[in-house]
Amino acid sequence: MNFDLDKMTLKELRDLRAKLDRAINSYEDRKRREALAAIEEAAREHGFNLSELTGAKPKRSGTVAPKYANPSDPTMTWTGRGRKPRWVQESLEGGKELDDLLI
What we know:
This protein is mostly helical. The protein has 2 domains: 8-54; 68-101. The protein contains 3 helices and 2 strands. It has helices spanning 10-45, 50-54, 86-93; strands at residues 68-70, 73-78. Strands 1-2 form a two-stranded antiparallel sheet. It is elongated and about 80 Å long. The model has no long low-confidence stretch (mean pLDDT 91).
């Protein structure tokens, strides 16, 4: 393909650049997937999986079970992670300990 860039309009040049960017990204993604597949196959041939060799931790999924519940409304729970809910703050300010709210 020969392009005479000097004869192209600005819009045509930008469209060409966008197409090139998409083609480059697609090529890189394809090559990355091929390389990963080859690495995983080599690891399997040696009796390992890739995460064992790289030390990568498996991704965790799911939810965290609640650890604390509101004594006046047990449907209000908290896992103990992140910001304390208002009912936890109010209980602590009222003299309770966090252990008092354990489920």
